[in-house]
Structures are given as structure tokens and as C-alpha cells.
């Protein structure tokens, strides 16, 4: 009994020893040198493998960072400046600093403002339906609403709003990897700088048609009236082919264009609610008037009272 | 046993409602919208401006390359604007809008153009006339005809095949043309044979058009070199490659042209246009269009001027019937649904099909059950179910090695699929991507 146990103990130990020797020899003989820097850089990278940098994954990007001499044109959009700074420290190379960007949807043509004129029954994919025709509405530039962008988003930063039929970008989750930009056959999604507190002003339309046609197809279409171009103090608005575009580099986020746009096609995001600002303006205009009026009006109180109920009603 | 192509094919319900309706001439439209991209290849270049007066048959857009074609004004009138109009592709395309003069008498009188049999022109003149007259393949592919006839390479062409198959259900435009213009078509064939030094010509007609076979057989007795072949009724026999295989049993190599096996194929409509261009110097300005549909009041065949809005045609045929769900430019198999009735008739419009609610709805796509029906019916010997899956998964390289590019987009696979899978939609998309990848590589 005890001998058979000893046998198996001896057998397994010797098998293990032989395997260990083989493994040791093989690992020495076929050793592949890998720059330890690659592993260190790979550890820092976000490990999202999204392909936003242009490489097929984070490991490949780490290799590229270590091997190429000039890495100033390489950038990890997910990790941003922070990660690139750390990479630069490890590698001792210079990296470019980029303003963080975020994806924005340049179409507001939801079901309520952009009426459907046809019905599409084919496979629900923007890439396929865009090959067949210009979409269910009369606007051939806007969102098709089949959600190719949502499908490709690795970060769950997008979802389809069932009410409007448009995709919604969750800015906090967006890493600006650019997968949605590539997936959209209409080039509706644009990468724009995040700015402070995600403040953004941009034209939410890509319709190149003439004003009347664009407006007929969609209530919130840019009609190319160039009012925004006229009011912009920094010449940040460029008009081309009946469409306004706000240059993010020149825009100072003054929001004058938002107020003048007759079709509300200019979108502002994350600004504090307008009520805070507009009452100030109104007050500043009205208050002095009231103050001036109040004094003489005191005598004619009856009139003021009679006006009030009618205005309330 | 009648001739046909050996591999695949289907036989959908024929529904040739308008087969007995003689071709009527549409009244001259008040406004025509002439798109500048009516053919495969480079869009033509506009040579008129706003407020220009144009004559009937005047060139309004010039061919802008080898694979391109002239476009002529179908009416006498004034150019009112150069605008973007939705065409049958579903997108807005550049169009020349011409308002017809009230005095315009641009409708042809058939009596004014009696049959002209003698071919007086030389070979070069004939080819130049065909090129100048803006003739493109009128079967639906709209490939510029002069490109097909340009035999620069050492290809020895010994056969001219005339495509009178019209395998699409519903459509009868070619059928009626063969019945009514048989003698002209025969002269047209003689013109091409003379110009290209070809001694053998075969007109392929499916056996469901027995009257057309009979008429053309009698008409072709004037020339022993021209034969008529009755073919078994099978879709997609009207496809060039299938037709060549069916009639003379030659197989066009992968990625090759009919020229590579010594054949040139032309549609009967194109032949008639060539006849008119060469004998009477009339450029391509009108074509036969079948307006049909089960619920339509008076489905008919029309001679229609290029650029006529489709609503005029439908109006002429009794108006859009109640319960209409879909308007198709072309036949039910290869046609394309159009966005609205303002879409103009182009050189490639062979029919307008009006489909009712019950017939139009697509059924929900289910899983593939590996029945391989699509493989059996594919006339090109492909595996549509595999191509669809590869495209769906984004495996374009493998789709390319599975010969996705040889697909002729006949839609037989989607037609027979018991799971109603959108096979052709995906394959078409895959072809698009593979083509882009291939051009990027080169």
C-alpha cells in the first residue's frame, strides 16, 4: 500500500522535473526580446482597444509609440493629454498636446420636426439604406435613424432616442474614439473641442438645399439666411452652399448666433439655463424704465390695476 | 426543348398585363426635367444656361469622357433653371428643367418616317452617329452604346446578339416594340452588322412572346444572316451573360466582357434607337415605357419623352389607384422604388410599376435555415447566404474571394428565401465596400 503511494509520488515528481527542465531550455532557447517599455506603456494606455488612435489595439499602439522616433502625431483620444504625458515621461519623447474633443450630432431632425414622406422596410442599417435611397424624409443630408453609430460605440456612450428617432451622445462617456464618425454614412457626427464645462455652440444641420426646400423638409433646418454670419463678432461662422458652419477655433461661445437663428438650428449645450441670463437683460432694460415710470404712475393707480387683470387673463 | 441558361434561375408570375396594348404616344409634357446622369459612367457636362432657347434634339449636355454620353433636349422650349431634382436613385441630382414652347410640335408622326432600308453610311459615320446621338443601353443598365461598339482590342467579334428577352415580370415595352417596329429593328441589326463586320446575328426572345417571335421571324427573312431564337421562360435570362450562355453556349469569364468571347449584346430598344439615329438622324429623346400595375385603371405602353415626370404617365394611365403602397421604376425584380411621382423618366426607365398595399409589404427576416434554395437559384453559381453573412460580419476580404463582385444583383435569392432574408440588400452593400477596397488597393 505505502509502496504504491511512493511510486506515484516519485513518478509525478520526476515528470514534473523533466517538464520543468524542458520548459526552461525552451524558454531560454526561443526567447524573444521585447522592449520592456512596451509593456509599461501598454499598462498606462486605457486598454479600450477601440482603434481611435488608428492602430488595431492598445498593444499595437504601445509598440508603435515605442518604436517610432517621432510620436508627436500619435495620440490616444481616449486617454487624452494625461495618458500621453505619462507616455512621454516613460519614453522621453515629445508628445503633442491636444484639446479634448467630443462627438456631437449635427442633426436635430427628429420625427416631430422632420415629417416622413416614405417608409423604408429593408434591413435596419444606415449603410444599407443610404445605398438604396436618401431616407424616409425629404432631407437627404440628415440622420437616417437606423443606429449604425450606436452599434459601433464601444463605450455605451450612445443610444437611440425612441421619441425623436435620433441617436443621443452621452458626453460624459464619450471618449472621442471616432468610431461613430466613421460608421455614419452621412457624416453627421463631428468631433468638436470639449471646451470648459462641455460648452459648445454648433450648427445642428447639414442640409445644403436652398432655404425653402430645406425648411419644407425639416422645421429646424439651416436655411442659409446668414444672420448668424452677420452677427458673429469673431467671423467664426462660415457660410457655404446654403449652410452655416461654426469654426470651433474662432468661436468664443458668445451665443449671439443662437438667438438670431430663425429656425433654431444652432445648438448650444451645457450652458446654464437661459432664464439666468435673459431676465438679467430684461431687468437691465426694464428696470430703469419702471423706475422712471413708477414715480408718476403712483397717482394713476386705477389704470395700472385695470391693466393687470386683463394681461393676466 | 427550348434553349436556356443551365444554372439557377426562377420563374416568377409573369403578369404581362399590357402585352396586347399598342404603344401610345404621350402628349408633349409642359415641363421636362432632364437629369445629366442618365447613364453609367461620368455625368454629362451641361452646355446650356438659364433662359436659353433650345430646339428639339439640340445637345444640352455634352459627353464628358469616353464612358459618357450626350444628352439632347427632348422638346423645343426654354431652359427655366438648372436644379437639383430627386431622380430614381432616391437622391437629388442635377437636372436641366425645360419649359416646352406652346407651339411645340415635337411629337413624332410615324408616317413621316417610313421604313428606310438602304444603308448609305460608311462604317465610321455609323459609329460616330451612334456616339453623337447619346444612345445608351435601353434594357436598363444604360451603358453607353458606343463604348460597347468600340472594338480597339484584338477581340474578334463574330456574334451579335439582340436581347428581346424581357424576362422581368409586368414589363412589355420591348415586346410591343418588337411587334410594332420589327422591320426597323431588322434594319438596325443590319446597320450594326455592316459597321462591325459581323456575319451572324441572333435575336433571343422568350417563348411567352410567341407573336413577337413570329413577327420577327417573318421580318428577318430578308436577311439570312439574322436568326430568331425562342428561349425557355426563365428569369434572369435578359442578363447579358445568361443570354450568351443560353443562345450560343459561351461563358463570359469572371470580370470579363461579352467582347472577350466574341459577342456583342444589344437590347431591341437600343437597336431601334440606332436605326433612328443612323437612318433619320434622330437622337435618343424618347423611349417606350410600360406603366402597369394590377389596380391601375388603364395600364398601357407609352412613347415617352426623356425627362417627363412620372406623375404625367401615371395620370395618363388612370391616376394612382387607392391603396397604392409603392411605385417602382423598372420591373418588380430589379426595379427601384421611387420617392415621389416628380421623378423624371430617364433613358433607363423601362417601366413604372404600381404596387398595392398587400403586395408591397416585406415580411420580417428570420434566421437562415440552410435550405440552400438561394444557392440553387443563383444564376452566377454563388452562395448568397454566405455572402450575406460575410457582409453582415464585416468579413469583406473573404466575401471578395467568394466572388461577391460577380453577383449580377438579379434578386433571385431574395425571391426564393423562405426566411425572407434581405440577401440582395446585404450583398449589394458588400459589393459596394469590396469595390471601394479594391480601388483603394490599386
Please provide a brief summary of the model.
The complex is a heterodimer of chains A (313) and B (442). By secondary structure, chain A is mainly alpha-helical. Chain A has helices at residues 2-29, 36-44, 58-67, 80-91, 126-132, 148-152, 179-183, 211-217, 227-231, 256-260, 274-297, 301-312, and strands spanning 101-105, 158-160, 167-169, 189-193, 200-203, 237-240, 243-246, 266-269.
Q: What is the terminal-to-terminal distance of chain A?
A: 105 Å
Based on CA inertia axes, which overall geometry of chain B fits? Answer: globular
The helix-and-strand class of chain B reads alpha/beta
- What is the CATH level 1 assignment of the domain at 122-280 in chain B? Alpha Beta
pLDDT below 50 for ≥5 consecutive residues: which ranges of chain A?
276-313
Quaternary organization: heterodimer
Biggest sheet descriptor of chain A:
2 strands, antiparallel
CA radius of gyration of chain A:
31 Å
Beta strand % of chain A: 5-15%
Topology-level CATH name of the domain at 122-280 in chain B: Rossmann fold
How many domains is the backbone of chain A divided into? 2
Count the beta strands of chain B.
Answer: 17
Tell me, briefly, the overall form of chain A. elongated
First CA to last CA of chain B: what distance? 46 Å
CATH superfamily of the domain at 122-280 in chain B: NADH-ubiquinone oxidoreductase 51kDa subunit
CATH architectural type of the largest domain in chain A: 2-Layer Sandwich
**CATH structural class of the largest domain in chain A:** Alpha Beta
Return the average pLDDT of chain A rounded to an integer.
Answer: 84
Count of helical regions of chain A: 12
- How are the strands of the biggest sheet of chain A laid out side by side? 1-4
